[in-house]
Amino acid sequence: MSKRVAAEQAASDLGATFVIRSSRENSWALIENLEFLRDYKAWKPQNDVSQIARLHERIACRPWSTIASVLNDLLDIADTLYSEISCGRVVFNLPSDRLTNPQEALVFRDRHAAVAYRSFAKSETTSPRQSVTLSISPGARFLWDGQLWEVLNRGDSSIACRSIDQKPGRHSNFIELTPAVLDELAQQGKIIPEFDKPLADRRDALAILERVSIQKLEIAVERYRVLFEPDAATTLAHRTPRTQRYWLAAYREAELHYGYGFIGLVPNVEQCQGNRCRKIGPALPVNEEIKSVPYEVRGPLRTSLVQSPTRAVMLPIKVHPHSV
Prior knowledge:
The chain is of the alpha+beta class. It has eleven helices and ten strands.
């Protein structure tokens, strides 16, 4: 304690104060990032204006990108990128992401995208998804009573499986299960499919968000704050409890389908899924001509004569007697 008093006195003589705290309170990622950017802060390299423009054009293409993808897309851009991050002109989460891990560290198009991503990441569910199904095709694996099994063959009346023991010196066991027994075990939750989908699910979910407009992302963030961050400032706090229950139901449904409830808070998110390009070819040229070119009607059985620069088409048209 005497040393602390002496230190406080010494600091006071210099017009300063200090606080003693545990190192557990340190943000190690932030400290590491500041150390990484120290030279860029002190050096302030004179970057080529065209390089800076190329960098910002690339980052603006997507709401978020890994540093590795940016460096792969733009050669010799590393110094420019880190310099822009150090100056705050490229949005990067210094307290949590590590610049030394470019495969996962993200840069963002703007602060709205950064906030949306943080809300998305926090919405990841830890509960098992109901959409998981068990495949019993050869090569499929599942956990049963703590043991990993692999399907070897699926016959009409039985399914051959072998145990997979990863411990050295242990041998596999072979069993045959009927489809009915396997189905019963699955219904009881005693067998669990082994599948490494979390990363794929995350990619799929992020792909949906990347197609969402800035306005919809902002609305989703506001809804998330209303539901889970009541102390945060939001423009939607006045919404009725009924509306908030609707948002929460959509959030829970998205947890089951995507593993991330935040997606359910995006307005009309179903419009942002998959390839929505037209799968049917364009209408035949003659149809366009029929729709756009004037036609002539004659006689009790009306016939339209469609004129075009290349052809004439006769089409019978049924009419009611009173219109003749």
